[in-house]
Every structure is written in structure tokens, then in C-alpha cells.
Design a protein that fits this description.
Keywords: Hydrolase, Magnesium, Metal-binding. This is Inositol-1-monophosphatase. Pathway: Polyol metabolism; myo-inositol biosynthesis; myo-inositol from D-glucose 6-phosphate: step 2/2. The chain is α+β, with helices and mostly antiparallel strands and 274 residues long. The chain folds into two domains: 146 residues, Fructose-1,6-Bisphosphatase, Chain A, domain 1, CATH 3.30.540.10; 111 residues, D-Maltodextrin-Binding Protein, domain 2. It is 36% helix and 24% strand. The strands form three sheets. A seven-stranded mixed sheet has the order 3-4-5-6-7-8-9, sandwiched between helices. It has a five-stranded mixed sheet with strand order 11-10-12-14-13, with helices on both faces. A two-stranded antiparallel ribbon has the order 1-2. Strand 8 and strand 9 form a beta hairpin. The relative contact order is 0.14. L-MYO-inositol-1-phosphate (LIP) binds next to strand 4. The site of L-MYO-inositol-1-phosphate (LIP) has 13 residues, from strand 4.
């Protein structure tokens, strides 16, 4: 499988660069075709759909026995089922709201899971030419340079990423505001890039120290989990304990100590599982 992983990685890498060019060529367009999905501000564009099709077509022709979980396929009714088979987990444009507004923080998030654990992770922001990569056991990289988490192990020294999300659920919104109120006096600062994958990439390269969110999906976090852990960080459930990739909840941090402190502080929210 090791040799195969190299082939899987090389094929995914080249397809990601090809799709990045497509996204970058369209980011400044003011005539994007935008539709809504689960709610009034949960957007999908023709670029999201086209990139997912290119990735699935390219990977399935190269590896016919591989399976796929893609954001747009699932939103059109395909199964979101993770088996032991090699499975590509795809968010074709993570940060679609940012893409719609030409705000340059969107990325392709692509991961390969084998026997239900991540083996390859790729996060590519073509607008800023940031290519985050990881292969299990081989470390994490930004544009080919090795990256590591900050190692910060105290909330009082931490820059925390958290999101407002694209759901207008009043209970969730209340809990987001409660967590902002609780954390603001204790941490260095709160930030939101509008992309789960890019938030996780910031933790992986030490530009932020932790990120948590309720309401994300496996395709938002699949690549980021491996890139963070290969950079020396941790990925857990926001209440502590093992991450459950279909629970729509995630917390990553530069150290277990920081993860535990943050989990202890958070007001919890439990979305309906995928
Ligand atoms: C986005 C996530 C982000 C979340 C947004 C949205 P999308 O994914 O990356 O963390 O806050 O609500 O779900 O929809 O742009 O692929």
C-alpha cells in the first residue's frame, strides 16, 4: 500500500493544482452562478460542482475501486458512508461564501481515508498560493516547507479560530455568542477565516493555536485533521475525547493541554449527525 499511497498522492496533488487554477480564474468574477442548499446563506456555485466532478472523475478513472464522499454529491442525495475501502473525502470549495464574495480565503480540501483513518490530506488556497499537504507518518508541509504547530499550551497565550457558520439556528447562534463571551477575556484573540479547512491549516502551521466548530461536515475537516496531527497537533471532540468525524463537531489544537483547557471552557452544541 505504501507505493500505492505515493501514486494516490501524486495523482491527487496534480488534480488539485489543476482545479486550483480553475477556482483562481473565477474568484474575481461578479457573475458567479450561486444557488442555496440547506439554508438562505448555505451557498453552492457552479465552480464547487465542476471542481468536485473533475476530482472524482480524475481519481475514479485512475483508481476504479476507490470510493468518494463529496460535499456536493451528498447535498444532491448521495450516501455519506465511510467504509474500510480507500475513500476520497472532498470539499471542492471550502469557504464558498468567501468565494462568492471574492474574499481570498477559500480552498480545495481533499483527503484519502484508508480503513476509516486519514492517509493523505491536501488543502489548497489558490488565491494566496498556499498548498498544505500531509501523508501519514511523513509530516506536514506548506508549499513544500515542513510546518509544525505553535506548541502553545495555555488559553491565556492562545489565538483561537472559531466560526459563525452559515446556519441561522437560534440555539446554535446563542451558544456561539456565549462561547465568544466566555473566551474573549481569557485568550489573546478570536479569528474566523470562513473555512474550516483553512482554520485547521492555520493551527497546523502555528499561525493560530486552536480551532473549534459545531456544524461542520466530514469533508470540511478530513484533510485538516491529518495536516494538524502530522504537524504535531491534536484533533478531539469539542467536549474532550476522541473525534467523531460524522458528529459535525471538531476541535484541533497545538497541544493536548490547550485542547483540554478549551474543551473544559466551551458551552457545547450537538448538531444532528451526518
Ligand atoms: C464552510 C465551513 C465553515 C463553516 C461554514 C461552511 P463550505 O464550508 O468550512 O467552517 O463555518 O458554515 O460550512 O460550505 O464553504 O464548504
Amino acid at each position: 500500500m505504501a507505493n500505492n499511497l505515493e501514486t494516490f498522492y501524486d495523482t491527487a496533488y496534480n488534480l488539485t493544482l489543476k482545479c486550483g487554477k480553475l477556482i483562481k480564474s473565477r474568484t474575481s468574477s461578479r457573475t458567479k452562478k450561486v444557488e442555496t442548499k440547506s439554508g438562505a446563506i448555505d451557498f453552492v456555485t457552479e465552480t464547487d460542482q465542476e471542481v468536485e466532478e473533475i476530482l472524482i472523475q480524475g481519481l475514479s478513472s485512475a483508481f476504479p475501486d476507490h470510493k468518494f464522499i463529496g460535499e456536493e454529491g451528498v447535498s444532491q442525495g448521495k450516501q455519506c458512508e465511510l467504509t474500510d475501502a480507500p475513500t476520497w473525502i472532498i470539499d471542492p470549495v471550502d469557504g464558498t461564501m468567501n468565494f462568492v464574495h471574492s474574499f481570498p480565503h477559500s480552498c480545495i480540501s481533499l483527503a484519502l481515508f484508508v480503513e476509516k483513518v486519514p492517509a493523505i490530506g491536501i488543502i489548497y488556497n489558490p488565491m494566496l498560493d498556499q498548498l498544505f499537504t500531509a501523508r501519514k507518518g511523513h509530516g506536514a508541509f506548506l508549499n513544500g516547507e515542513k510546518i509544525t504547530v505553535s506548541g502553545i499550551n495555555s488559553l491565556t497565550d492562545a489565538l483561537i479560530m472559531m466560526e459563525f457558520g452559515t446556519s441561522r439556528d437560534p440555539e446554535k447562534r446563542t451558544i456561539i455568542l456565549e462561547n465568544q463571551q466566555k473566551l474573549m477575556p481569557q485568550v489573546h484573540g478570536l479569528r474566523a477565516l470562513g473555512s474550516a479547512a483553512l482554520n485547521m491549516a492555520m493551527v497546523a502551521c502555528g499561525a493560530a493555536d486552536a480551532y473549534f466548530e459545531y456544524g461542520i461536515h466530514i469533508w470540511d475537516i478530513a484533510a485538516g485533521e491529518l495536516i494538524v496531527t502530522e504537524a504535531g497537533g491534536v484533533c478531539i471532540d469539542p467536549a474532550g475525547g476522541e473525534v467523531d468525524r460524522l458528529s459535525r463537531r471538531v476541535l484541533v489544537a497545538s497541544s493536548q493541554e490547550l485542547a483540554n483547557q478549551l474543551a473544559k471552557e466551551l458551552v457545547q452544541f450537538y448538531p444532528e449527525r451526518d
